[in-house]
Amino acid sequence: MENINNGKNDLISIVNNSDRIPVFVDLNNLLYRSYFVFTPDRFKTSQGIPSGHLFGLCQTLRTLDKLNYEVFLCEDSPCDWRKTLNENYKSNRDHSNNTNFWKDFQKIRDLISNLNHFHTIAGLECEADDLMFTGAKICSELNRKCYIFSTDKDLLQTLDENISIIHKVTLKGNEEITLNSPEYIEKFPVEPFKLPYYRAFKGDTSDNIEPPVKRMPKDLILDLVDYLYEHDNFKGYIIKKKSHEKWLKQLVDNFDKYIANYTIMRLRPVNFTILQKSKLNSYEKICKEYELNQFYSYIKSLESI
After folding, report:
1. Average pLDDT of the segment spanning 65-86
2. Which of 52, 114, 235, 298 has the fewest CB atoms within 10 Å, i.e. is most exposed?
3. Burial tier of 141 (Cβ tally within 10 Å: 0-12, 13-18, 19+)
4. Model-level pTM?
């Protein structure tokens, strides 16, 4: 992948030259969810080609454009180093039924690359979560308000004064989680930057990550989160309650599992590239092939403005 280290400069340039609010979106997850909402039995072309994944994508793109966002669609790529830490990581996810849209991915790239205010971000062995984290933190460093469009709890660690999470976008308003939202405070008793420490104790069923010790008391977890944030291990840790001794012993025996969980769950800055815009009006061909007439009409109307 060319110019992978130039992504940050390109992103800064786009954000600084736009009066729109940046939003970072997991492209693969959006396609995946669209496939199961707009199912092939109901959404297919007159030639029998499944089109629900693209229909759902285009509906979301149109909404994001109408809401005046600068949209960065982040591509997900296999992250082998996380698998080496836990071979069961995301092994519970079945992608066997949606393989049809992965072969359409270049067409999807071409469709997006023709649209104003839409950009595709990719990185080598980078999950979309890491790309969204990186892009949002760059915007925050510029003191620019931005959004991450995701329902993944991992992204909540990104929250700060400039970054909010949106779970749903509609023209009537967004479901938004901010740094001080009750939705966050009531569910997670630690600051966002400590969230990977906390969730490493709890595990994550959606990613097939088990807790290192089951049913560990919450007060012990919170005390350990604060301690581990300041230290790399338990050396010097003083047990506050006698009843915690058995739990701590189990944790010491399974500390490698805790470290693996933490390392997997912690998002980090990554190198990336923003894919070049296409000079061809390929969106017209793709819209006709998949009979995306409504979206085609919307894009044509923008060209006349």
Report:
1. 88
2. 235
3. exposed
4. 0.91
User: pLDDT per residue over 149-162, tens digit each?
Assistant: 998 889 999 999 99
Give helix then strand counts, H and E, for the chain. 14, 7
Domain 4-186+268-297 CATH (choose: 3.40.50.1010, 3.20.20.150, 3.30.70.270, 3.40.50.620): 3.40.50.1010
The residues pairing with 170 across neighbouring beta strands, listed in sequence order, are 173
- Of 60, 68, 77, residue with least CA distance to 125: 77
> Quick check: 305 and 298 in contact, CB under 8 A?
no
- Angle at the Cα of 31 from the Cα atoms of 162 and 169, rounded to 5 degrees: 40
Please state at what angle helix 293-303 crosses helix 282-289, rounded to 10 degrees. 160
Question: Residue 21: helix, strand or coil by DSSP?
Answer: strand
Give Cβ neighbours of residue 233 (< 8 Å, ≥ 6 apart): 255
In contact, 151 and 32? CB cutoff 8 Å: no
Residue 99 has pLDDT above 60, yes or no: no
Question: Does the pLDDT at position 2 exceed 50?
Answer: no
Q: Which of 227, 223, 220 is nearest to 247 (CA)?
A: 220
Report which residue type is found at 125.
E
Question: Domain boundaries in the chain?
Answer: 4-186+268-297, 192-265
Which pLDDT score, from 0 to 100, does residue 3 have?
45
Burial of 199 (0-12, 13-18, 19+ CB in 10 A): buried
Predicted local confidence at residue 142, as pLDDT: 96
Q: Is the dihedral of CA 280, 281, 283, 289 positive or negative?
A: negative
Give the up-direction half-sphere exposure of residue 126: CA atoms within 13 A in the CB hemisphere. Answer: 24
Number of alpha carbons in the 13 Å side-chain half-sphere of residue 269: 9
